[in-house]
Design brief:
This protein is α+β, with helices and mostly antiparallel strands and 74 residues long. The protein is built from three helices and two strands. It has a two-stranded antiparallel sheet with strand order 1-2. Strand 1 and strand 2 form a beta hairpin. The longest helix is centred in the C-terminal third of the chain and has 9 residues. It starts with a helix and ends in an 8-residue tail after the last helix.
Length: 74
């Protein structure tokens, strides 16, 4: 209740999760306080891109998705 009353939390709208309560960056900066610039990624949102950057072939990525080792957004 104290943190709510002091305005500690901020609220953002996530594209799939709805309204989220967030904490600020836990440090104070002298000039520019960092803030989130986008919502947290959704499960599987960047899986394919990351695996491609790591050198996985399209066939191997498909195999990983099919066996449930990773997920992708549909």
């Amino acid at each position: 209740p104290h943190l709510e009353a002091t305005g500690f939390f901020s609220f953002t709208d996530h594209p799939s999760e709805g309204r989220l309560r967030e904490m600020p960056v836990p440090a104070t900066w002298s000039k520019t306080q960092p803030e989130p610039t986008r919502p947290a990624p959704r499960l599987g949102e960047h899986s394919v891109e990351i695996l491609q950057e790591l050198g996985y072939s399209a066939q191997k990525i498909e195999s990983l998705v099919e066996c449930g080792a990773t997920a992708t957004l549909s």
